[in-house]
Design brief:
This protein starts with a strand and ends in a 5-residue tail after the last helix. Helix content is about 30%, strand content about 30%. Helix 7 runs antiparallel to helix 8. The chain has 15 helices and 25 strands. Strands 12, 15, 18, 20, 23 and 25 form a six-stranded antiparallel sheet that branches. The chain has a five-stranded parallel sheet with strand order 3-2-1-4-5, sandwiched between helices. It has four domains: about 5-100, Rossmann fold, CATH 3.40.50.20; about 130-200, ATP-grasp fold, A domain (Dna Ligase, domain 1, 2-Layer Sandwich), CATH 3.30.1490.20; about 205-330, 2-Layer Sandwich (D-amino Acid Aminotransferase, Chain A, domain 1), CATH 3.30.470; about 340-445, Glycinamide Ribonucleotide Synthetase, Chain A, domain 4, CATH 3.90.600.10. The radius of gyration is 21 Å and the shape is globular. The chain has helices spanning about 15-25, 60-70, 80-85, 85-95, 105-110, 110-120, 135-150, 175-185, 255-275, 305-310, 320-325, 355-360, 370-375, 410-420, 440-445, and strands at about 5-10, 30-35, 50, 75, 100, 130-135, 155-160, 170, 195-200, 205-210, 215-220, 225, 230, 235, 240-245, 280-290, 290-300, 340-350, 365, 380, 385-390, 390-395, 400-405, 425, 430.
């Protein structure tokens, strides 16, 4: 591929900001367009970065129009809803070089019932489940009643099978909660028409990402996400409140090897066996129970906020990684990563994840981001930020990801919280968790490691 390339990234959050920076680090990339993007993505960039807001991520023709307008050399489809629409298929049909799985392969994310059945067919460890739909809601209620008669302390999850921005898995610790969560499926629209009632697995979660051409795989560092809104893993499910990478949990090589072989390798082989050659980034959200990893879910793209702590570790050229996937040359390609630990703390509008609760934070002034960026080893990736006259304003629920790097979890965490301490939203409307990475902090000190 020639030099001076134009890359179009489809998406609008902090994840896409991090991906754009990975492409910016490539000597062969001259120009980057992010559609629909957000204002902060263009802030303080070294190369030409353009945000094209004339793009509706839920309308295929809108995305195709943007691609035809900019004529990119490469399109990176980074967002889940866009993949589920079949954007990769449409752009390929129109002659574009596209990174990301086609719609049928991306089904591993957008149809959780089908995904679970794929796991069963390929002997991939996962929790037991039962599928239901809203028309047979009474059957679902009868099922959970029978479960709790047998075990009143059973942990269950009621999960919408479609895409819900990470908010469709509802935890049930008793019969009453399970019945309420079944009723809540109707609020997820089409995504909740079919839902799963899944056994709750109790253990420690981790995230893993792999670049694949459908045959070969190259692994990135492990990560650990924090999904709930409040400390101690309490509150509603969110799109993500913070992450670390790597997690010391994967210093156990048995766990890491099982994740790579059983959870990821079997999935890619299983997809290929069903004539669904997967090209792109595959994410596995796993949980380790008594030393054995199980799959919670697969995503057909980078996770958010895990992307923000994993991609900055890359020392090799991300563009070359992508091209190796597309050209089925990954077998002869190696990914180089640094030895740093990274911690991401996500700043959100007070009241997030409920739009009704944080609606009055929209358009409030955000202070301190410029000062936070001056700290060594800090990157800030923007999501719901609007810029007017050089000033930053809240424009959504998740606003920004502050990412700090260090030689260990203690150093990285200290930098991250020092940086976010500079930030403030008028009216005291900034919220963030103060316990990101606590499990690795405990592991670090329990092993008497030195700072």
């Amino acid at each position: 591929m020639a030099e001076n390339l134009t890359v179009l990234i489809i998406g609008n959050g902090a994840r896409e900001h991090a991906i754009s920076q990975a492409y910016e680090n490539s000597a062969d990339v001259k120009r980057i367009i992010v559609a629909s993007g957000n204002d902060f993505i263009t802030y303080n960039r070294e190369k030409e970065v353009i945000i094209d807001k004339n793009c509706n991520l839920k309308q295929l023709e809108s995305i195709l129009w943007v691609a035809k307008k900019h004529k990119p050399d490469l399109v990176d489809v980074a967002q889940d809803d866009v993949l589920a629409l079949g954007t990769v298929d449409l752009l390929q049909e129109n002659g574009f070089l596209v990174f990301g799985p086609n719609r049928n392969a991306a089904r591993i994310e957008w149809d959780k019932k089908w995904s679970k059945e794929l796991m069963i067919r390929n002997n991939i460890p996962t929790a037991d489940f039962r599928p239901f739909n809203l028309r047979e809601k009474e059957n679902a209620v009868d099922y959970v009643k029978s479960v709790y008669r047998e075990n009143p302390n059973k942990l269950l999850y009621v999960k919408a099978t479609g895409l819900c921005s990470g908010k469709g898995a509802l935890k049930s610790a008793n019969l009453e909660e399970a019945i309420v969560n079944i009723e809540k499926m109707k609020y997820f629209g089409d995504a909740g028409k079919t839902f799963l009632i899944e056994d709750g697995l109790e253990g420690e979660e981790l995230s893993y990402f792999v670049a694949t051409d459908g045959f070969s795989m190259r692994f990135f560092k492990s990560a650990q996400d924090n999904k709930t809104a409040f400390n101690f893993d309490r509150g509603d499910q969110t799109g993500g409140m913070g992450a670390i990478s790597p997690t010391l949990l994967t210093q156990n090589k048995s766990i890491e090897n099982d994740v790579r072989a059983d959870l990821i390798g079997h999935a890619i082989d299983g997809l290929r066996f069903e004539n669904l050659t997967y090209k792109g980034i595959l994410y596995v959200g796993g949980i380790v129970v008594d030393g054995k990893p199980f799959v919670i879910e697969y995503n057909a793209r980078w996770g958010d906020p895990e992307c923000q702590v994993v991609l900055p570790s890359l020392e090799s050229d991300y563009l070359e990684t992508v091209l190796a996937c597309l050209e089925k040359k990954l077998l002869s390609f190696d990914i180089q990563q640094d030895n740093k630990t990274r911690v991401c703390v996500v700043g959100v509008s007070r009241g997030y994840p409920d739009p009704k609760e944080y609606s009055d934070v929209i358009s409030k002034r955000i202070y301190g981001l410029e000062d936070a960026m001056k700290i060594g080893g800090i990157k800030i990736f923007g999501a719901g930020i609007k810029i007017e006259d050089g000033k930053f304003y809240a424009n959504g629920g998740r606003l920004f990801s502050i990412v700090a790097e260090g030689d260990n979890i203690i150093e990285a965490r200290q930098k991250a919280y020092s940086a976010i301490a500079y930030t403030y939203i008028e009216g005291n409307n900034l919220h963030y968790r103060t316990d990101i990475g606590w499990r690795d902090v405990e592991r670090f000190y329990s092993k008497n490691l030195k700072i």
